[in-house]
Amino acid sequence: MQGKQIIWLGLLMYGGCLIASQPMLYQWVDEQAVPVFSDRPNEGKTATPVILQVPQTYTAPAQPLPRSSLSMTTTTLELTPTAKIIKPQHEATIWQTNGTLDVSVQTSFLWPMGTYYQVLLDKRVVKTSNQAGQFSLMNVDRGTHYLQLHVYSADQQLLYRSPALTIYVHRASALFPNRQSKK
Predict the structure, then answer these.
(1) Nearest to 130 by CA among 111, 108, 150, 115
(2) Mean pLDDT to the nearest integer, 11-17
(3) Residues near 46 by beta carbon (within 8 Å), at least 6 away in sequence
């Protein structure tokens, strides 16, 4: 019997500690008829204890995302700097009479200061510039050629190499110089 009494006494003491640990709030009205709230009762005034209710909280259960009948596609951001030849296109046939070939370069990244570009024709450097954009290659012979772009840093380290493009150049013949170009 005495064991039950000790358990009850322990539970009462624990409950009293819980009640004592609850923050208390008191309310009274001051001389200017303004309501005052404090955690200590005002001496000499009638302070009414305010019972604070435990705030209600609610956590919604996780809901699965609705399945849509539309197919979702993902987009991958290209974080790797690239540069490519956009004109002429791969396997393009160029009809010209004067041997000039215009090459357009596009970059997807702001390269560091001092970066320079080299256009290679059949694995030989034919143009070097510190700006991407338009390059004019002179005296390009007729036949099959390979174009490639290299990007170098200021300290001559190769930063990027574009895929090689194959192009076909047609030029006026020395035997038939008045032959009209096909467009």
Answers:
(1) 115
(2) 61
(3) 28
Q: Answer yes or no: is pLDDT of 168 > 70.
A: yes
Total-model pTM: 0.51
For residue 164, what are the CA distances in angstroms to 86, 91, 117, 130? 12, 11, 15, 20
- Residues 153-162 as b or e (16 or more Cβ within 10 Å = b): eeeeeeebeb
Between vectors from CA 38 to CA 37 and to CA 40, what angle results, nearest 5°? 145
Domains of the chain: 21-51 (no CATH), 83-170 (2.60.40.10)
Cα-Cα-Cα-Cα torsion 65, 68, 73, 75, nearest 10 degrees, comes to -40
What's the pLDDT tens digit per position in 97-154?
Answer: 678 888 888 887 777 788 888 899 898 988 888 877 888 888 888 889 999 998 888 8
Q: Three-class SS of residue 26?
A: strand
Quote the tokens at residue 130: 């510190």
